[in-house]
Design a protein that fits this description.
By secondary structure, the protein is of the alpha+beta class. It has five helices and 24 strands. The protein has helices spanning 2-46, 88-92, 131-135, 306-315, 410-419; strands spanning 53-59, 63-70, 78-85, 97-103, 106-111, 117-119, 137-151, 155-167, 171-182, 185-196, 201-213, 217-230, 236-249, 252-263, 268-276, 282-288, 297-305, 333-341, 345-351, 356-365, 368-374, 385-387, 395-399, 402-406. It has a 22-stranded mixed beta sheet that branches. Strands 23-24 form a two-stranded antiparallel ribbon. It is elongated. The termini are far apart.
Length: 420
Amino acid sequence: MMMLSTRLKITIATALLILSTLGYATHLFFSIPDKIEQRIMAALNQSGFTDATFSRKQAYWNRVMFMNVKLDEDEFSTIKSIAVEYSTLSLMLGGTSRTITIKGLELTGELDTNNNITIAGWKKQNANIPKTLIKNTKTIILEKARINLLSEALGGISLSGDLQARPDKSGLSIQAILQGVQKQLSAQAKIEAIFENDGTWNIRSELEKGKLNLNHIRTSRLAGLLLANGTTQEDIRIIGELQAGGLNIAGLPWKNGSATIESDGANISMTLAAKSAGIEGIELALKMDDAFNTNAFEGNIYIDRIGSAFDYLNSQNALHMNRDDLKSLDPLTNVEIIFLKKNDLNFNIKQESKNIDIKGFLSLAGNSCKIKIASEAPLINTPDALDCSKEQTNGKIIYNDQSFTIPKNTAAFAKAIMQQ
């Protein structure tokens, strides 16, 4: 009887242990959706969306979904759904979630003149990266995400796309396909990014289907590679090589357009090269310290034969004078024009075989236009400063014993150049 009693006690104790374990496991199982909810809400709060709420939650065996997430009271910023997939046993043992899929993220905000971003529902001063959630998730997916910003200077800006982020021991890797649309720039890009735990980051972006529409520069079929890296938001370096299938500068068509861009995150500089389209023999090199300020630039134009340049301008209705009046200049070959524009357009026309080296500037202020030419060789029968505001009669310019005709409408041509 003594033996049976001991066995009975062991059996009862074992049964109680099993039941307790099952009970605790059941408690953990049913509490998982609540714990996930706490993690999601904590991550949203940590990201700066402290007023986030959702209207409905659905729990399944290995998935929890949160629907109709509002990130601000007026629902300018919303998320259609957040789905968390997990292994029940893994989470019960303290493991990570398999995936978090965020569908239909819509953010609405503004970009001010100092490039500061405000987004509805987003408290920037409270915003931090939700490192705990990222660390405890194998894959984070954004599907059909969109950010809409309104800018007084740039108009509407829309950025949309899909993204996958995978954390590991060294940091976070991201792959994305993004589309950006703005009145001056639109493009699609494939992006690969790595964010290291030590704060350094690298981004590689393959640009395609790009369009650029600045005051005097338009491109189409823009493609290329952009590389960016840094350690903080203030320490940024961006370099890129771009090619344009279609290019128009100052209303003139060009081909084989290529550009190199550099940026420190605050300013973008650009160096551009292209060849004339339609009529061959003209090469352009252009440099802008601020790519969005097309009123300040420098560069040079190489012309194989000056007559080709006149034909090129005439074919685009940009010559603004009688083509026949320029025939005396047609024989000139290998002409280089170096130029610099800030307020006035400074120029240097050079041609080695005839020892031509003419320096001058065009000045346009209101209705007033002046051309001033200075050189070491004497200039005969030309005024010290040509008044572009008035119609000029034909005259002669003698340069190093070479005689050239000053055609009519020179003033109109000069003024048109400044207004291009």
